[in-house]
Design brief:
A hairpin with a 4-residue loop joins strand 3 and strand 4. It is built from 2 helices and 15 strands. It is mainly beta and about 280 residues long. The protein has one domain. About 5% of the residues lie in helices and about 50% in strands. The chain starts with about 25 loop residues before the first strand and ends in a 15-residue tail after the last helix. The longest helix is centred in the middle third of the chain and has 13 residues.
């Protein structure tokens, strides 16, 4: 869910709890999406739903994300788009596999699929869809869950921004630049989701930039509030022509898979051969 302004200022002088060697929590989160702003006249209405599921084991994160949007255009025509994004990422941040599909009406297409590896001096992506090709990744590129962990570490150290390259598998061009503005830090406070009431949180604004572009504007931008276990609330998704806000409706934090069911070190990486 990493593809989700002036600084809002910091509240309090405190440090987020240290996250060293602590994987992000398994979660089952559902968000209601509602239109908050339109630019131009192409979109006159939109609503949607986002489901974000993470399973954390002793060795890897498995993520399944589904977003469904119902959009009304200026002629009153409704269109339904569903995106399915499935990934596997080892905890060391060195291996990553991905499958990203979009469904419009009755037509489903694979936007991108493949595997990526990273080492100390860079890495590469081997795409198998939509057509086979290989793209190099620059030194310091992070995969999605590692990216989230890294900016939470940056927040814990009091940094105000964080700007590594990111590869998330949602395009065929390789890594993008990201700029994460770390904004409003917040001490634990009561929440209707009791699992979050004892956790500190931080608001972030993330811009995604095409590495080959020369303009200053992001291709995509999102804002959200992250808790120290990796759960997000108050999501704002800026698609350019319109903006949607995501409200957390349901949240489950399953038991730690690493403690409940140890996974052998030679567990095979998902192949994502379906689709």
């Amino acid at each position: 869910m990493n593809r989700l302004a002036p600084a809002l200022g910091l509240i309090g002088l405190f440090t987020l709890p240290a996250l060293a060697a602590t994987p992000l929590a398994s979660q089952r989160a559902t968000y209601a999406l509602n239109l908050t702003r339109v630019r131009g006249h192409a979109v006159t209405g939109a609503t949607g739903r986002l489901q974000f599921n993470v399973t954390t084991t002793c060795h890897a994160y498995t993520v399944a994300q589904r977003m469904t949007l119902l959009i009304r255009n200026e002629n009153g025509v409704l269109s339904r788009t569903t995106s399915d994004y499935d990934t596997w990422e080892n905890l060391q941040g060195t291996r990553f596999s991905f499958l990203y599909r979009e469904t419009n009406g009755q037509t489903t297409k694979t936007v991108s699929q493949g595997t990526a590896t990273m080492g100390p001096n860079g890495g590469s992506v081997v795409y198998t869809a939509p057509k086979p090709h290989i793209v190099k990744l620059p030194k310091g590129t992070l995969f999605p869950m590692e990216h989230t962990t890294a900016f939470l570490h940056a927040a814990a150290k009091g940094q105000s921004f964080f700007d590594p390259p990111l590869f998330d598998g949602t395009s065929v061009r390789g890594a993008d630049h990201t700029f994460v503005a770390i904004l409003q830090r917040r001490k634990p406070r009561r929440s209707k989701f009791h699992q979050l009431s004892k956790l500190a949180s931080v608001a972030v604004d993330i811009g995604f930039f095409h590495r080959a572009a020369h303009d200053n504007g992001p291709d995509f931008r999102n804002q959200m509030r992250y808790y120290t276990n990796g759960v997000a609330r108050d999501i704002r998704l800026d698609f350019g022509g319109f903006v949607m806000r995501g409200a957390l409706q349901h949240l489950q934090l399953p038991p730690d898979e690493c403690q409940q069911k140890p996974v052998s070190a030679d567990q095979a990486e998902p192949s994502h051969t379906h689709g």
